[in-house]
Structures are given as structure tokens and as C-alpha cells.
Specification:
With about 140 residues, the protein is of the alpha+beta class. It has helices at about 1-10, 55-60, 95-100, and strands spanning about 15-25, 30-35, 45-50, 65-75, 80-95, 120-135, 135-140. Strands 1, 2, 3, 4, 5, 6 and 7 form a 7-stranded antiparallel beta sheet that branches. The termini are close together.
């Protein structure tokens, strides 16, 4: 399992965005693009910055189960294309020390005040299940 997770982590680095899916108060599913931090080795935890007024913050507070989907043009073992689906439990973090620990330069574009941005929230999505499809290869990991 660790070998497959390590290979998926390598492929995820080349994917710029993931779609983060939450459930609205009415029960509908809603997705939005979030930056996939390719500078970090993926270990089952994904980290996203947003602000307190984003609808997804209230949605996660009400129901922490989220979905992440990623697609890329480079598959495992040189095969074309990869598709990754992650089921995760999200946690809302409002600790500035955690903001600093997970900050990367690319975030300055959206949050010029960095960790001091008013209303900043860090979302930690801890994967419980990862499914992937890569040409002829497919699999599922339970973490």
C-alpha cells in the first residue's frame, strides 16, 4: 500500500487542481476547484486554505465527509491519464501556527496577508479511501 501511495503522490504533483466536494444544507453535492499543493509529498492528508465566509466552511462544519477528485495527463508507469477519487474527513483549522507550517509561496496570490489574512481557515482532508484508474490499472486503498 505504501508503494502505491508513494506512486500516486508522485503523479499528484503534476496536477494543479483538485475538485473538493461537500454536501450543502439541502443535501445537494457541490464541488469547487482547490489548489493541489504539488510541493508536498501526499501521505493521505490534503491541505487547503480558504476564508471563513466560504460556503464550504459551513458545509464541512455540518458534515465533515468530503470528496476530492483529481485528473492528470500522466498515469502510473508511463500510461496515459490518471483519475483519482478520495473520500476524506475534513477538519477546519484556525490556528496561525498551522497556517505557517502549511504555507507555500503560491498561496500569496490568493492571500497576500499570508497567515495574517482575516478569517483565514485551513482545511485538512484526511483520506479514508482512495480509488484510482490509470489506463489498464486500477485499484483502491483504504487508509
Amino acid at each position: 500500500m505504501k508503494l502505491i501511495l508513494k506512486e500516486l503522490s508522485k503523479k499528484m504533483r503534476s496536477i494543479d487542481f483538485t475538485m473538493l466536494t461537500t454536501r450543502t444544507a439541502s443535501g445537494a453535492l457541490t464541488s469547487r476547484p482547490m489548489s493541489n499543493n504539488g510541493e508536498v509529498d501526499y501521505d493521505g492528508d490534503s491541505w487547503f486554505f480558504t476564508t471563513e465566509d466560504a460556503a464550504m466552511v459551513a458545509e464541512i462544519a455540518a458534515d465533515p465527509i468530503v470528496g476530492l477528485t483529481l485528473t492528470g495527463d500522466k498515469g502510473l508507469l508511463g500510461k496515459p491519464g490518471i483519475f483519482i477519487s478520495v473520500e476524506a474527513r475534513a477538519e477546519l483549522i484556525r490556528d496561525k501556527a498551522q497556517f505557517v507550517a502549511h504555507w507555500t509561496k503560491g498561496l500569496d496570490r490568493w492571500f497576500p496577508q499570508r497567515a495574517e489574512t482575516p478569517g483565514l481557515v485551513l482545511i485538512k482532508a484526511h483520506a479514508s479511501r482512495i480509488a484510482y484508474w490509470d489506463g489498464e490499472d486500477e485499484g483502491e486503498l483504504t487508509l
